[in-house]
Amino acid sequence: MQKKKHIHTSDKINQNHQIPQSRGDATPSIGSASIEDAVKLIRSIAPDTKIETRYIDESDGYTLGAPVVSKYDIPGFDRSTKDGFAVCAADTQDASPHSPVRLTFSGSIQNGFSPSHTLSRGTCMTIATGGALPNCSDAVVMHEHAHLNGSCVEISCPVSPGDNIIRRDEDAQAGKILFPEGRILRPQDIGVLAGFGICTVQVRAMPIIGILSTGPELVPADGRPSRGEVRETNSYLISALCRKLGAVPNRYGIAWEGSTDLSNMLCTAVSECDAIIISGGSAHDERDRTAEVISKHGAILLSGLSISPRKKMVIGEIQGKPIIGLPGHPASVYLLLLLVVSNLIQVMKGSVTHGLLKEFGIAGIDIKAHPDREYHIPVRINENQIIPLSRKAGLISLLTHCDGIIHIPQGSKGVKKGEILEVMDLTRIRSPNHSPVHEK
Amino acid sequence: MQKKKHIHTSDKINQNHQIPQSRGDATPSIGSASIEDAVKLIRSIAPDTKIETRYIDESDGYTLGAPVVSKYDIPGFDRSTKDGFAVCAADTQDASPHSPVRLTFSGSIQNGFSPSHTLSRGTCMTIATGGALPNCSDAVVMHEHAHLNGSCVEISCPVSPGDNIIRRDEDAQAGKILFPEGRILRPQDIGVLAGFGICTVQVRAMPIIGILSTGPELVPADGRPSRGEVRETNSYLISALCRKLGAVPNRYGIAWEGSTDLSNMLCTAVSECDAIIISGGSAHDERDRTAEVISKHGAILLSGLSISPRKKMVIGEIQGKPIIGLPGHPASVYLLLLLVVSNLIQVMKGSVTHGLLKEFGIAGIDIKAHPDREYHIPVRINENQIIPLSRKAGLISLLTHCDGIIHIPQGSKGVKKGEILEVMDLTRIRSPNHSPVHEK
Questions:
Q1: Same domain, residue pair A365 and A252
Q2: Residues B270 and B339 in one domain
Q3: Same domain, B241 and B382
Q4: What distance in Å separates the CA atoms of residue A89 and residue A78, rounded to the nearest whole number?
Q5: Are residues A125 and A240 in the same domain?
Q6: Which residue in chain B has the smallest CA separation from A76?
């Protein structure tokens, strides 16, 4: 299982960004890594998951861990694609509506298993769509161009060899690669595999992602917060997104009691999972605690991002397993999961896909940007009109209206109403139209 | 549980299309219903599934069976969105960089549960992002605009009431509808629900879809076909698509032995499932058998479609349960599942969504059409370039390259290369770029 890592990328980013740049006591330290840097790094450190055999009926969304090769010629026999008459094409060359060719009717081909027939020159047999052509027959004349008259069939239109048939290996040749390694299986692919007699596939196991939350202000979602406390949201958000991205979430709960608690929980998670996501408390000292604990057991590879608004993200490694520290605000967590963590899961699963797919939409209003900065903005999509959502930090309900993310690169002054934009979106399920609460 | 049926639509279609129009012995009988007619009919006969309670962590993709209402004000206290100082905004009105206002430092607010503080005029307290504002405080001054100097804090910028805070009910007010009935839950919604302390939701149960195959030429996918036989593909395709659409597939295998066999299997399936899909054999008499068996136990409501290429589809009803008869060719099955059956599952689940979402792409080549006909064409999408796939009947491998479906309405002569088109797509996972086998 050869790793396709680009270690130099990791090393370079490590050099540039390992030491967070402090901007004074009170401001969180902000690195200068871009989202692109973070994605490169995370793709370079993602470990492969093991290869497992799965029944095709339970393989939708899995990534092939080995190419799928056809064992047989498919369909395996010359097959009619029309209801009509199996003929030797050469016998029909002089046929026309005014001067039909007459062939001797020599019986019917049954669909399904039937004894092997051989067609003599000057004869024909009825055949249904899907039927196996008799030997020495090389084409089918459609019913519309043939008329059975006693023991004789009148053909009013010539056919060429191969007309209205599928050749015995036209769907697939034995030994041909049907699907390459790295292909994500879709429902239609599973149908194809069944049709080709391939009922099990070698796929990458789903990566197991450990999920931890930190913050003294957190209570469980079904708890009752006192003044100053809030419900823990991120582990639910991260779990559901991991499942959507084809990973298995494994929750470890909330680390309340500072570094020792977090440290112990992290060690357990590292021993049981393929990668770990820690979502941090909202306060400054809480964010630093995550980095401190990762450093204690492994190494910090990236700290801080240069995007707007500032996102505190930590990428580290413990025992070869990626550790991602995310901020506390659910909207930031959502954004970084889609932009960065989605890549981790893709690489671990061996997928050739890079990031999430984009679709087009039209800017519903002017979207201003400062040319010095790069923006990733959560948006609503309403009949292809893109409306940016207000980004008041800490509002959970922002996510209710979030349908995707747009990117405004550094150097741009923004986008005018009516311009075509690319939107990154995970679910393609739109929030309802009548929820303008957070529009600006 | 009030049904929102439009029975008149069903009745109308029933009247118009109940009797298939025969075009002679050899040609399959073709009705004149459009895809739109079929969708209207199927939406009108779809029964609701029951409502069940689910833990939010297992509710992704489910449709709400009742509105979700906030039980509390969220966050429940005025909350800081910045690291800084909690103040009375009025105390800062005269502040400027050259003439800072001096406030008495009166301690720190800890994040998480802490005793209730009250701020006196002329004083301030340090507060972190997420902290609960003390009583009588109505704004936060960011650290950047404040300097702690012994027992005194110098404020260099005025704030207004509400600056840098979230009000106690700004995220949600107790009693407010957070999500309406019919909303499909997404990962981000599950995060929001957790944050609002809602850990269970009322959702529509997944519909159970019975799946039957007919055809004397079929062998199971893991069987070994003899000459003239092919592997049963459609039940795998339909199962995987049902799961993707949020339904539970229930397979009943292959009806080999003609009408009696099919009739018995169909009765069992009707007693156990919410709707049934029968994929027919490829031959003419086989297709008629499905309609005959449905008629025996219930009623045929629609038979045949006017789209190109001709698709033989039967819609019926037995004991109030929809029965869909599909053709045998997997590519036709795929197309009709996406165009028509997806609507059945959506309505059964109570979703407000209508059909599959569309995205934009650019025609990669000229696509010709006959103005007399309506087309639904399977396509590949390669970096937003849309390439129609060849449609040779019976080739299973067509599906390997199929990324979506385009619609060319009646009256159109087709689409020119470079024109923008809408594509309907279920998975948004693209087939690999290097598989030009079926391009034309």
A1: no
A2: yes
A3: no
A4: 14
A5: no
A6: B227
> What CATH number is given to the structural domain containing A14?
3.40.980.10
pLDDT tens digits for range A251-291: 999 998 778 889 999 999 999 999 999 998 655 666 678 88
Note the pLDDT of residue B277: 97
Residue where one domain finishes, among candidates A323, A348, A373: A348
How confident is the model at residue B306, as a pLDDT?
Answer: 66
Mean pLDDT calculated for residue range B321-328: 93
Contact check, Cβ <8 Å, B111/A282: yes
| CATH number of the domain encompassing residue B184 | 3.90.105.10
B313 domain residue, yes or no:
yes
The β-bridge partners of A315 are A302, A324
Q: For the complex shown, is ipTM > 0.90? A: no
Q: Measured between CB atoms, does A237 come within 8 Å of chain B? A: yes
Tokens of A225: 């917060």
A178 Cβ under 8 Å from any chain B Cβ: yes
Residues of B in contact with A60 (CB under 8 A): 240, 243-244
Tell me, yes or no, whether B128 lies in a domain. yes
Task: For strands B275-279 and B385-388, give the pairing.
Answer: unpaired
β-pairing, B123-127 vs B84-87, is: antiparallel
User: Within a domain: residue B433?
Assistant: no
User: Which of B303, B287, B152, B108 has the alpha carbon at shortest distance from B214?
Assistant: B287
| Top-confidence residue, B276 or B423 | B276
Bond before A309 cis per omega within 30 degrees: yes
Find the domain containing B390 and state its range.
Answer: 358-424
B211 and B270 Cβ atoms separated by less than 8 Å? no
My answer on whether A306 and A418 are in the same domain is no
Local structure of residue B141 (DSSP, 8 states) = E
Query: Do residues B335 and B263 share a domain?
Result: yes
Q: Which residues contact A40 (CB under 8 A, 6 or more apart)?
A: A6, A9, A13
Residue B252 domain-assigned?
yes
- Closest alpha carbon within chain B to A396: B192
Do B126 and B234 belong to one domain?
A: no
Q: Is the Cβ of B7 closer than 8 Å to some Cβ of chain A?
A: no
Q: Where among A316, A348, A380 does a domain terminate?
A: A348
DSSP B217-234: TEE-TTS---TT-EE--H
What is the CB neighbour count within 10 angstroms for residue A166?
22
The secondary structure of residue A305, as a DSSP letter, is B
Tokens matching residue A214: 């930190």
- Partners of A194 on chain B (C-beta within 8 Å) are 221, 231-233, 235-237
